[in-house]
Design a protein that fits this description.
With 162 residues, this protein is α+β, with helices and mostly antiparallel strands. The chain is built from three helices and seven strands. The protein has one domain: Nuclear Transport Factor 2, Chain: A (Roll). Strand 4 and strand 5 form a beta hairpin.
């Protein structure tokens, strides 16, 4: 049994709204009691809602004011994938943008997240998303993607003539 599109949209929108508003309790309520939240492949892994509460408070201290945009979710079974784009402003520090995506597994009943993994990078300044950022990819049955090949001239050995 998978999740509904409505559940996925509620989770993604809730994630963005609670992040932007620094609604600590609302953010933690999006996750199950035993959630595994992988902050980044090279960063910490948070386990359980108690650690999640400490994590989101630390993020607030690190990020300062955040303006968050969430992309259109893609849903497969119990998994949802979405992009995020946040600009961060903190007194006496340069502005930054955090751009990334996440994969989340939601409970079919209740819609809470049991496992969350995200990938992101930070850039200096308040970057603006490109035109198609956050848009859902075409579903199957849509025209096939074309792969463009770039041909590079082959490097043939130069033959000397006598």
């Amino acid at each position: 049994m998978g999740i509904s599109r409505d559940q996925a949209v509620r989770f993604v929108q809730g994630y963005g709204q609670t992040w932007e508003n620094w609604d600590f309790d609302g953010f933690v309520d999006l996750f199950s009691d035993d959630v595994v939240y992988v902050e980044h492949p090279t960063d910490e892994t948070i386990v359980g809602r108690d650690q999640m509460q400490a994590y989101i408070r630390d993020e607030h201290e690190f990020q300062g004011a955040a303006t968050v945009q969430m992309g259109t979710p893609l849903v497969d079974g119990c998994h949802v994938v979405a992009e995020s784009w946040a600009t961060m402003t903190k007194a006496d520090e340069p502005n930054r943008s955090l751009i990334g995506c996440f994969i989340a597994r939601l409970e079919p009943i209740g819609g809470r997240c049991t496992h969350f993994r995200q990938y992101w990078f930070v850039t200096q300044g308040h970057a603006t998303p490109f035109a198609a950022w956050g848009a859902a990819m075409p579903r199957s049955g849509a025209p096939a993607c074309r792969r463009e090949h770039r041909r590079t001239p082959s490097r043939q050995p130069r033959l000397e003539t006598a």
